[in-house]
Design brief:
The protein is an alpha+beta fold. It is 40% helix and 24% strand. It is built from 18 helices and 23 strands. The strands form seven sheets. It has a seven-stranded mixed beta sheet. Helix 5 runs antiparallel to helix 7, helix 5 runs parallel beside helix 8 and helix 7 runs antiparallel to helix 8. The longest helix is centred in the first third of the chain and has 27 residues. The two termini are 38 Å apart. The structure holds adenosine-5'-triphosphate. Adenosine-5'-triphosphate (ATP) binds next to strand 10, strand 13, strand 16 and helix 13. Adenosine-5'-triphosphate binds next to strand 10, strand 13, strand 16 and helix 13.
């Protein structure tokens, strides 16, 4: 685990060093859980968004996109349930003045018991060697059994407070924290305040304060912008069920525990698609979308073993099925996307609060009803992080050197082709520019003439550029160049006129999309 944490730290500093992700307002020492994307980061991010957008809107005739405003009428958030229920339970330590999520403290305590058990099992495995019978050991070891019982009892108690009939039992949560003797990692004390509910929405005001300013929220999810536009899109686009509306945009949550770099941010970006279906068909569509979305992820070639579904046992009050797609990050399997069957909760609730009739007239059955919804919701930043984590490698080379390389899927790489003149004379720089001038209309190219060729290759490896071309003496005679592949480091001689054909197919989003069909 320590080794994995190390890798993660390296990825974070790599992101900064190579212009992918910077802390926000860096010269003022940053702002907690807010990040800026740099010159390479923005290209990678745009490519991820394009891959998603095109897979939804180009590949499905019945999915269209919108771009709704971040500010919405405040009643939207009453209707969606966010004003009343979008809360995290928080607790403060009076000595360190640090604030924690009470549920996270308890979950970490459960994880500590799990760790303790795993350590005992691993120790025994080493001690017994080949003859080790893990199941039997877990059953018979006094120490493991005791820890397991404590863990299970805590888990059971935690479930009870989380699912208490009138909402989360906040006093019960505090009692668990006291009984388990959980201490603040900073002060080391157990001097806790009571647990309080904390709404995650950021508030601001529209209009001048004196003349009836009203409180509005920064949207905590993009989905509501789709629901309130359901009628507009359905009518103007003459959409027939089933159909979907896709949207990419910023969302804001005042996360209390913001850790793990861009995994949990206060300002982030979501790619959401709400698919409207006839009531009764939603579970069939839910499983279709599960499959479609998993395929989209696996199509990037990171290996099926790095993904899994995590089906929810406990469903939100409006959902009748929900799952997460989790990806193996250096800090464990973590959610990157949620797929939810949201019933007709949102549309019905907006109909109630707005007084508008939000229904679909089904020409086949001549009846009107409120459609049901399947939602697929993925965080751009988490997707970005998963791609970075999987692509980063410190590779030991045969000559004993190490190279840092990002094995980004070529279609997502910020720069597709780097062109180097071997030296700065004999017309080579001009020739290199000529190549770029021709190819820049088709994909992102970069010119580099500084340092030895080897160093230039390393810089391109570090930003995940899949191809490098070198213009040398021979180029000046026969119009051929060396083309070097990032992953294999192999070089071959090709005609300048062939470059576009060889590279374009590999680096286009279309190449990824074609594999989805
Ligand atoms: P979590 O349980 O990790 O807080 P969530 O279940 O609240 O996530 P959803 O509301 O389902 O997340 O949002 C859909 C997606 O939006 C998530 O799968 C994730 O990729 C992304 N997302 C949610 N919150 C954040 C955040 N604070 N920072 C970055 N991405 C986020």
């Amino acid at each position: 685990m320590a080794q994995q944490e190390d890798v993660f730290k390296k990825i974070v500093s790599h992101c900064k060093e190579y212009g992918f992700v910077f802390p926000s307002s860096d010269i003022y020492d940053g702002l907690g859980a807010v990040y800026d994307y740099g010159q390479n980061g923005v290209e990678l991010k745009n490519n991820i968004k394009q891959y998603w957008w095109q897979s939804m809107v180009l590949l499905h005739e019945n999915i269209v996109g919108i771009d709704a405003a971040i500010f919405m009428h405040p009643t939207t958030w009453k209707a969606s349930g966010h004003v009343d229920a979008f809360n995290d339970p928080l607790i403060d330590n009076r000595d360190s003045k640090k604030r924690y999520r009470a549920d996270v403290l308890i979950e970490e305590q459960i994880a500590k018991y799990d760790d303790k058990i795993e350590k005992e099992v691993e120790k025994a495995r080493k001690r017994f060697g080949d003859s080790f019978d893990e199941a039997k050991y877990r059953e018979t070891s006094e120490r493991v059994r005791e820890t397991q019982e404590k863990r299970d009892a805590l888990h059971e108690r935690y479930q009870q407070v989380m699912n208490a009939p009138g909402g989360i039992d906040l006093e019960g949560m505090k009692q668990i924290i006291l009984d388990e003797e959980i201490v603040c990692p900073i002060s080391g004390t157990r001097n806790w305040t009571d647990v309080r509910q904390f709404n995650l929405m950021f508030k601001t005001e529209v209009g001048a304060a004196a003349e009836g300013a009203s409180t509005i929220y920064l949207r905590p999810e993009t989905a509501q912008g789709i629901f309130v536009n359901y009628l507009n899109v359905q009518k103007t686009g003459r959409m027939k069920l089933p159909f979907g509306i896709a949207q990419i945009g910023k969302a804001f949550r005042n996360e209390i525990v913001a850790r793990q770099f861009i995994f949990r941010m206060r300002e982030f970006e979501q790619m959401e698609m709400q698919f409207f279906v006839k009531p009764g068909t939603e579970l069939e569509w839910f499983s279709k979308w599960k499959e479609t979305r998993m395929k989209w992820h696996q199509n990037l070639g990171f290996g099926a073993e790095n993904y899994r579904f995590h089906d929810h046992d406990k469903l939100a009050h409006y959902a009748n099925a929900a799952t997460d797609i989790e990806f193996r990050m250096p800090f464990g399997f973590k959610e990157v996307e949620g797929i939810h069957s949201r019933t007709n909760f949102d549309l019905s609730s907006h109909a109630k609060y707005s007084g508008k009739k939000i229904e679909y007239f089904d020409p086949e059955t001549n009846e009107s009803y409120t459609p049901f919804v399947i939602e697929t919701s993925i965080g751009v930043d988490r997707m970005f992080l998963s791609i970075m984590c999987h692509s980063f490698e410190e590779q030991k080379l045969d000559n004993g050197e190490t190279r840092t390389v990002l094995h980004l899927p070529a279609a997502l790489a910020p720069v597709k082709l780097a062109v180097f003149p071997l030296t700065k004379k004999d017309g080579m720089p001009e020739k290199a520019q000529e190549i770029i001038n021709e190819l820049r209309f088709h994909f992102n190219c970069k010119y580099e003439e500084k340092d030895q060729i080897g160093k230039r290759y390393r810089r391109m490896d570090a930003i995940g550029c899949p191809y490098c071309v070198t213009v040398d003496q021979q180029t000046m005679q026969d119009d051929t160049v060396t083309l070097r592949d990032r992953d294999t480091m192999e070089q071959r001689r090709v005609k300048i006129s062939e470059l576009r054909g060889i590279i374009e197919d590999q680096v286009s989003i279309t190449s990824l999309l074609k594999r989805l069909l």
